[in-house]
Design a protein that fits this description.
This protein is α+β, with helices and mostly antiparallel strands. Helices cover about 25% and strands about 35% of the residues. Strand 6 and strand 7 (about 140-145) form a beta hairpin. The radius of gyration is 17 Å and the shape is globular. The two termini are about 15 Å apart. The mean pLDDT is about 85.
Length: about 220
């Protein structure tokens, strides 16, 4: 699947669902739409995205139909934000995610947003990131494996798609998502990362940020 991810800072009085579109016509409508709202006190530092919208598409043509509709109609039905289009890679918990989409409602997520290290091309970074899953860097020491208590029910990587040179780089080179049934599980991961993660020991990225959030399903075609 292809994801269109919108990062935004919510204006006062604007509901989170204003940053994800569910009213597109059938031919352009996303296969799934969710919106994530940052949980105060559980994230860290910049960038201060307090709402992140996710829209899923079956292929490039589907994305293009949606973006064509959005260009014509979007200013009336959604708020602007920073957009990233990426290929979704589910590395763990596919069955849990399928059930999650069937059930709908709310779950919790720990997301990491990152910029790749200098000297790495987008393709090199993408390949190394896949092989780095489940571990975090530490300055002057080998990478450490994330324990089961902090791994969550599912782990997803979002790899940005190639972009025309004339449009510049995406805002981020990597966005991952770790899912939890409840806020207690999310809190356990946040606490573990605060104690064990050292950004200066990560050879893949030059900067990264975490966002802890509540996710609500707004639209899904999953059966």
């Amino acid at each position: 699947m292809i994801k269109r991810i919108t990062f935004a800072t919510r204006a006062p009085g604007v509901p989170p669902d204003a940053y994800a579109a569910t009213s597109a016509p059938d031919v352009a409508r996303p296969a799934r739409v969710t919106v994530c709202t940052a949980l105060p006190g559980l994230g860290d530092g910049e960038p201060e995205h307090d709402v992140i919208g996710f829209e899923w598409f079956t292929d490039v043509a589907h994305v293009e139909r949606f973006e064509g509709w959005l260009e014509a109609e979007g200013s009336r039905i959604r708020e602007p934000g920073t957009v990233l289009v990426a290929d979704e890679l589910v590395l763990r918990g596919a069955d849990w995610l399928e059930q999650r989409w069937r059930d709908g409602g709310e779950r919790f997520k720990h997301m990491a947003l990152a910029l790749r290290a200098p000297g790495l091309t987008a393709a090199e970074f993408s390949e190394r990131w896949r092989n780095h899953a489940g571990r975090v860097g530490r300055a002057g020491a080998p990478a450490i494996v994330i324990p089961d208590s902090a791994r969550g029910q599912a782990y997803v990587q979002n790899h940005p798609r190639a972009r025309p040179r004339s449009t510049g780089d995406w805002a981020y080179d990597a966005v991952n998502e770790v899912y939890f049934d409840d806020v207690e599980g999310l809190q356990a991961r946040v606490d573990w990362f605060r104690e064990n993660f050292d950004a200066s020991g990560d050879e893949l990225v030059r900067a990264s940020w975490f966002v802890a959030a509540r996710e609500e399903v707004l639209l899904t075609t999953a059966q």
